[in-house]
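>> received
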Amino acid sequence: MSAEYDVIVVGGGIAGFSAALYTARQRLKTLVITKDIGGQLNMTTLVENYPAILKTSGPELVARVRQQAELFGAEVIFDEVVDIQKEGNVFRVRTYGGDEYASLAVILAFGKTPRELGVPGEARLKNKGVSYCTICDASFFKGQDIALVSWGDLAREPATILSTTSNKFYWIFPSDKPIYDDEFLSNVLNAGKAVLVPNSEVVEIKGNNKVEAIAVKNRKTGETQEFKVAAVFIEVGYVTKTDFVKHLVRLNERGEIIADWEGKTATPGLFAAGDVVAYPYKQAVIAAAQGVAAALSATAYVLQAKGKKVYSLTDWRAEKIK
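>> returned
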């Protein structure tokens, strides 16, 4: 099987896009596969400790790095990687959507995976109206009725986006209020698009080939009602989800991937970076640096796989490569 890409990056957070920036800048054909953009940085409304940037938000920081990576030619696909196999010198990467891609190297930078609701219909309708990234997919459902399952600071960005893109959105949350910021909540409600559904939880997502409706249960009364919607945006946090690569890497007791300081894992050509790595300090700048280290290691690996002799590989000056 031939390789379609030089490098596939799994994950669209700060580590993943930092890695993609560096591999793409080294003129390697790079693909990023991710369920969302930003990962856990979507939970961070204010970043003041990232070097050279006085103040920004988590989503904006990742968006800037994504833009840089794409300017150098990196491609981005929104899907979930469910299986990786190595055949000879080539990795086969299969997604939930049924697509398969091949590359010479893979960088695992998916951090923690968006948490799922685990309700009937959710898995079957992924990418068919069930989304875990409002900023990625809201434009596909412009002017339609939508459901948002989110609360707390995680809900700030999706609620803001749906206040401008949807016809209306049912905001479903398990408590009396979706967020304890009265000014923010007032601004969202004044936009006239949000329909609050408090003390509630989604118990089923319905539809044949696409989302058509959701069943919502009131946690206090036990009553269930149905809302007709074109999509369900689920933004309820993140979990470590590494079972699909456990045959290729070593994991610690928390399910994190063990990698060395160069980003190398137990399988040659497979690298890891960011919050998915067994490293105690979970900071954006550290994740970005690990992404860069993994990218440079992957670049050297790919060049060698292509029969080139690499004397040295840095990104800030040209090095002789035969």
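>> The chain has a mean pLDDT of 93.
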